[in-house]
Write a structure and sequence with these properties.
The protein has 160 residues and is α/β, with parallel strands linked by helices. Helices cover 22% and strands 42% of the residues. It is globular.
């Protein structure tokens, strides 16, 4: 069932070519949480020269609205990571997968969303990736202790 859900999520993508961009405004608390979760999740990845696009939108929203990007300052915060995140609005969706418009090669779309704040130091975060041959999804509770965010509880996760 999880594999079917992940496949359906990855199939529902931005239709057509590049979309226009709308950036969100992040509070420092939101930016800190997003950055921490991305670092916890992707800091050990090795960049295989594949393009990685990043959005705060859930996949089911990609079909109905223009790509939603993080502010430029947020991408700069992540610039020291082993993979380079690009704005989602710069990707192209083509027959069930994303691709880099410069190279034409398949790319991954990574998404992360704060579902709800449980308290000032605890939040439920959902995210995942849609890639050429599959994807992943996860929902977890993160808690900030001693100034650092960490995963408290994995609610669900899956890979296809």
């Amino acid at each position: 069932m999880k594999n079917l859900l992940i496949t359906l999520i990855c199939v529902l993508g931005i239709s057509g070519c590049q979309s226009s961009s709308v950036s969100i405004r992040l509070t420092e608390k939101e930016a800190d949480l997003y950055e921490s979760v991305l670092r916890l999740t992707y800091s050990k990845w090795k960049d295989n020269t594949e393009s990685h696009y990043l959005t705060y939108m859930r996949p089911e929203e990609w079909f109905f609205v223009d790509a939603r990007d993080f502010p430029n300052s947020f991408y700069k915060r992540l610039s020291d990571m082993p993979i380079h995140f690009k704005k989602a609005s710069k990707s192209i969706y083509s027959i069930n997968y994303f691709k880099d418009p410069k190279t034409g090669k398949p790319a991954s779309m990574i998404w992360i969303t704060i579902n709800r704040w449980i308290s000032d130091t605890e939040a439920e975060v959902e995210g995942g990736s849609c890639e050429y041959l599959g994807g992943s999804i996860r929902k977890a509770i993160y808690i900030k202790e001693n100034g650092k965010w960490k995963m408290k509880q994995l609610i669900f996760g899956g890979i296809s």
